[in-house]
Specification:
The protein has 15 helices and eleven strands. By secondary structure, the protein is of the alpha/beta class. It has two domains: 212 residues, Aspartate Aminotransferase, domain 2, CATH 3.40.640.10; 137 residues, Alpha-Beta Complex (Aspartate Aminotransferase, domain 1), CATH 3.90.1150. α11 runs parallel beside α15. The longest helix has 20 residues. The protein is globular and about 75 Å long. The termini are far apart. The relative contact order is 0.12. The mean pLDDT is 95. The structure holds pyridoxal-5'-phosphate (PLP). The site of pyridoxal-5'-phosphate has 13 residues, from α4.
Length: 388
């Protein structure tokens, strides 16, 4: 047996048939027949992957699916949602540039923006509920504007068409993690780039860390290069898992939105609840924008202020939920609860949290795929047991 044959031993083959589910290309590199082919690969005459940090068939398959779902020209995958955001910042910004970020962004995204100041980038925060103020905030060095479709945890809805209109030619970059392309397609509304923490709804099963982005090829290609250079690329298995999750995305989002709407109304009627934040409830400050942009629902997040006082009432409530766990994530297939004051916003002072509207009694519910009746029963029982 030659050396070449022995190096191929153990590679599975399936005769004339092909696997019904896509294979996982769990490989560091790809063997290249000779230097001529290598040259053709680099010049683009032939296509093929060379090294998984640069590209891999599982990355490409997922990137294509995301682009299709977002109605965008091209997609890219990253090691996490933060990997996507980091690659976007490192690609679009250089020393001397300016970026506008919504003040209500995910805490780690704000931390990342703040770190960019060390590299000579100026960052200005804006109030997403006042898009008209953006007109005066744009400078000649402004490279992009960053917003989330729906903010965490108070669920403020960004009026994307108004934002796009107010910033003129400046690209709008949108984090659509909370909403997915089942509920909104930011590129169709004029955004230049959309990205997601695919660790959330796109995968949907709470077992992946991954990020994705989509937009015009001329914007996405440099993102892929940055991901490769800075080691921000995804791995094949998690790309494969997310691709599998996408098969049920439409069904999951439909059910999650329906259950969430019912649960928000139910919780608003409970005496143990002081306030419910859900954009499609008539007392939410974003209700008009939410009804216009999200006729099918705003996703699976509801935030609730318990009627008690302090961390203790939250602890009591959590301890009386037999099947719903406290878990600092969202968009799992299971319903989970988080507590912003001690997780996402723990690094703010209590005064800063107060200014941001995040009190100690606020919990964030990520509604999963359980039947509404089960969830309503468990929440009602826990609210009754703690007597809040
Ligand atoms: C809105 C939003 N964007 C980005 C991220 C970061 O994603 P990841 O945890 O996959 O890095 C998160 C994480 O919770 C998030 O909620």
């Amino acid at each position: 047996m030659s050396d070449v044959e022995s190096s191929r031993m153990g590679h599975p083959v399936s005769g004339v048939t092909t696997p019904s589910a896509p294979p996982i290309f769990q490989t560091t590199a790809f063997d290249v027949p000779d230097l001529d082919v290598l040259q053709q690969l680099y010049s683009g005459e032939v296509t093929g992957d060379i090294y998984t940090r640069d590209s891999n068939p599982n990355h490409s398959a997922l990137a294509d699916s995301i682009a299709r779902l977002e109605h965008a020209e091209a997609g890219a995958v990253f090691a996490s949602g933060m990997g996507a955001i980091g690659s976007i910042f490192l690609t679009l910004l250089a020393a001397g540039d300016h970026v506008l970020v919504a003040s209500s962004l995910y805490g780690k995204t704000l931390q990342l923006a703040s770190r960019m100041q060390r590299l000579g980038v100026t960052v200005t925060a804006f109030d997403v509920s006042r898009p008209e103020q953006l007109r005066a905030m744009i400078r000649s060095e402004t490279r992009f504007v960053l917003v989330e479709t729906v903010s965490n945890p108070l669920l403020e809805v960004a009026d994307l068409p108004a934002i796009v209109d107010c910033v003129g030619a400046v690209p709008v970059v949108v984090d659509s993690t909370f909403t997915t392309p089942e509920l909104i397609r930011p590129c169709a509304l004029g955004a230049a780039l959309v990205f997601h923490s695919a660790s959330k709804y796109l995968n949907g099963h709470g077992d992946v860390m991954l990020g994705v982005a989509a937009g015009a090829l001329e914007l996405v290609r440099p993102l892929r290069e940055t991901a490769s250079i800075f080691g921000q690329n995804a791995n094949p298995f998690e790309s494969w898992l997310t691709q599998r999750g996408l098969r049920t995305l439409a069904l999951r989002m439909k059910q999650v939105c329906e259950t969430t709407r019912r649960l928000a109304e139910f919780l608003a009627s409970q005496s143990g609840v002081r306030r419910v934040y859900y954009p499609l409830l008539s007392d939410h400050r974003s209700v008009e924008t939410a009804r216009r942009l999200y006729p099918n629902g705003t996703g699976g997040i509801i935030s609730v202020e318990l009627a008690g006082t302090g961390f203790q009432c939250v602890n009591q409530f959590l301890r009386h939920l037999p099947t719903i766990p406290f878990s600092p994530t969202l968009a799992d297939a299971r319903t989970t609860i988080s507590h912003p004051a001690t997780t996402s916003h723990r690094f703010l002072t209590s005064q800063q949290r107060g200014e941001a509207g995040i009190c100690d009694e606020l919990i964030r519910i990520s509604v999963g795929l359980e039947p509404f009746e089960l969830l309503a029963q468990e929440f009602a029982a826990a609210l009754g047991r703690v007597g809040v």
